[in-house]
């Protein structure tokens, strides 16, 4: 299933799913209140709710709570994750980005998957405008994939981690590179270079829908990024060095992960301007439209707001 959060014609915001790629279903309205109104509440008890969905014959034929996509506005499918950890899991991105700055690869990168916490309160959805921070001149996109945690766990082993993943979505980790560069010279961060916006969407795809694309380290999913219609980035999730299972093992080491937390992969190889170089494309400016696409996960578009 493809789960969404959307604003209805009456202005209310509800969670639900896509129906036939043409309709948005309000899960709360369609089930007469059995299912909750928000995606976070659904994730917190999704095993029971998914069982209800698969066993309910009424839902397959009802028109209750069903709205044409043209009449609703899609938002971030999980607008309020409990936390957001972003990893650094694609080797090509790490090596190229460091090489562009005249830096060698860090040996420790091959020893542990590393992550930072970003701002889980600045999540943006499809077609939502992104405001460039006022001091920023080097605005960048980052082409990533995210997993959504669906089950509580601590000290999770990589071999068991798939059981804790509810689904996946596209993630754009917007980056103010000039701010990031300065703050990280101090040896701490990124923080202010990242905390202003993270886009996710257009929906969360449950992992069962991706089973036909499974490979050893994840999934064979083409990942692309365009700016103003021009293809700039092209990679594949299967090139990831650290799997999401290894990321979950690291994140849950001595720490409890909860349903509704979000884990980012880090940027795929070639997946940002920092890596491509400004001779390939300038930094993003107001009015630019960035379009990220991942096979079977949809298309996520955002425009940089005019200042």
Quick recap of the structure?
The chain is of the alpha+beta class. It has seven helices and 22 strands. It has helices at 27-30, 39-44, 46-55, 91-100, 177-184, 244-251, 273-276; strands at residues 2-7, 13-19, 23-26, 66-68, 73-74, 84-87, 115-117, 123-124, 139-140, 143-149, 153-154, 165-172, 175-176, 198-206, 214-215, 218-219, 222-227, 230-236, 256-257, 262-264, 289-294, 298-303.
Characterization of this structure:
The strands form five sheets. Strands 1, 2, 3, 4, 5, 6, 7, 8, 10, 12, 14 and 20 form a twelve-stranded mixed β-sheet that branches. A four-stranded antiparallel β-sheet has the order 18-17-21-22, with no helix packed on it. Strands 9-13 form a two-stranded antiparallel sheet. Helices cover about 15% and strands about 30% of the residues. The chain has helices at about 25-30, 40-45, 45-55, 90-100, 175-185, 245-250, 275; strands at about 1-5, 15-20, 25, 65-70, 75, 85, 115, 125, 140, 145-150, 155, 165-170, 175, 200-205, 215, 220, 220-225, 230-235, 255, 260-265, 290-295, 300-305. A hairpin with a 2-residue loop joins strand 15 and strand 16. About 45% of the residues are buried. The model has no long low-confidence stretch (mean pLDDT about 95). The chain is α+β, with helices and mostly antiparallel strands.
């Amino acid at each position: 299933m493809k789960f969404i959060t959307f604003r209805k014609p009456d202005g209310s915001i509800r969670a639900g799913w896509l129906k036939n790629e043409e309709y948005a279903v309000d899960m709360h309205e369609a089930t007469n209140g059995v299912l909750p109104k928000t995606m976070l509440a659904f994730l917190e008890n999704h095993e029971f709710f998914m069982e209800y969905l698969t066993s309910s014959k009424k839902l397959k034929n009802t028109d209750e709570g069903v709205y044409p996509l043209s009449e609703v506005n899609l938002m971030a499918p999980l607008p309020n994750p409990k936390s957001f950890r972003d990893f650094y899991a694609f080797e090509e991105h790490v090596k190229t980005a460091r090489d562009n700055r005249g830096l060698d690869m860090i040996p420790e990168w091959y020893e542990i998957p590393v992550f930072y916490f970003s701002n889980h309160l600045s999540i943006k959805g499809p077609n939502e405008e992104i405001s460039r921070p006022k001091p920023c001149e080097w605005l960048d996109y980052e082409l990533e994939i995210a997993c959504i945690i669906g089950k509580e766990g601590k000290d999770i082993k990589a071999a068991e981690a798939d059981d804790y993943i509810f689904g996946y979505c596209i993630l754009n980790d917007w980056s103010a590179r000039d701010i990031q560069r300065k703050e990280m010279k101090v040896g701490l961060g990124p923080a202010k270079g990242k905390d202003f916006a993270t886009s996710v969407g257009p929906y969360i795809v449950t992992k069962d829908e991706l089973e036909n694309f499974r490979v050893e380290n994840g999934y064979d999913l083409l990942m692309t990024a365009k700016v103003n219609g021009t293809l700039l980035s092209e990679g594949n999730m299967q090139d990831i060095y650290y799997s999401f299972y290894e990321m979950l093992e690291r994140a849950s080491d001595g720490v409890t992960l909860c349903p509704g937390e979000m884990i980012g992969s880090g940027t795929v190889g070639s997946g940002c301007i920092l890596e491509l170089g400004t001779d390939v494309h300038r930094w993003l400016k107001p009015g630019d439209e960035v379009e990220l696409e991942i096979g079977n996960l949809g298309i996520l578009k955002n425009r940089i707001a005019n200042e």
